[in-house]
Amino acid sequence: MKLFSVQIPELAKCSVLMRERSRVEETIHAMQRAGAGSLQVISDFDMTLTRFAHNGKRVPTTHNILDNRLLIDEDCTKKVNLLNTYYPIEIDACRTAEEKLPLMVEWWTKVHELLIQQRIRKDMLARAVEESSAMLRDGYKLFFDRLTEQQVPLLIFSAGVGDVLEEVIRQNHVFYPNVHIISNYMDFDQTGVLRAFKGQLIHTFNKREGALSHAAGLRELQGRPNVLLLGDSLGDPDHGEEMNVEETRILKVEERKESYINSFDIVCW
């Protein structure tokens, strides 16, 4: 009897696509034999661990959650919305990652500069998340619980805002010790007012470099050659490159099916 029909029935659904089913089966069998002690999970956050939409409405990303009158004024919202003209560039299949990269840096830098000008207060972030419609995907509790029970590291690499991301996970009561987050973190002054963003800018097309540099310093990853990689962007498969791991790539996506099938082992659409 096939593995998917017994152990992973969800993968038999018509919405689940695989370019090389036999390769995926072999990989999953190998990961099962190696056990939880050989596994690590690397995941994007916005629209991967969080839902894309609910009841016909888009679920906010970590940046979208900051669009709250508690944090930014109406003029800032308008300016940030104007910068969304960069999004079609990000998903343009006709442009290479090299062509997109400087524009992504320009986009994220401008957005962060606008947020800094708003002098966002740290003590208002939790309330902004609570008032938002942020929502993790169905089954998130089982996913996070099972990983922590088996002591499997979960590395979340996000081009979003790390402070907001943490608060979403915290308010859903799944911010466990095995969860590690690499993202754009705010730098607050002594009075709790945003003054800058910390470290190197992380955007859609440089998350691989961030993954490699930060993962190298995590002792929890030593001796874990198998990685389960989850993402919603064509930039996400690069997270696992050059990390010397066997990987099964799983993606939640609703459009550009063929492009994603060529990039990920498993596509759920």
UniProtKB/TrEMBL annotation:
SUPFAM superfamilies: HAD-like. Monomer. Belongs to the pyrimidine 5'-nucleotidase family. GO terms for molecular function: 5'-nucleotidase activity; magnesium ion binding; nucleotide binding. GO terms for biological process: nucleotide metabolic process. Its EC number is 3.1.3.5. This is 5'-nucleotidase. Keywords: Cytoplasm, Hydrolase, Magnesium, Metal-binding, Nucleotide metabolism, Nucleotide-binding. It comes from Cyclopterus lumpus. Specifically hydrolyzes 7-methylguanosine monophosphate (m(7)GMP) to 7-methylguanosine and inorganic phosphate. The specific activity for m(7)GMP may protect cells against undesired salvage of m(7)GMP and its incorporation into nucleic acids. Also has weak activity for CMP. UMP and purine nucleotides are poor substrates. It catalyses: N(7)-methyl-GMP + H2O = N(7)-methylguanosine + phosphate; CMP + H2O = cytidine + phosphate; a ribonucleoside 5'-phosphate + H2O = a ribonucleoside + phosphate. InterPro entries: HAD-like_sf (IPR036412), HAD_sf (IPR023214), Pyrimidine_nucleotidase_eu (IPR006434). It is found in: Cytoplasm. One of its GO terms (cellular component) is cytoplasm. Pfam families: UMPH-1.
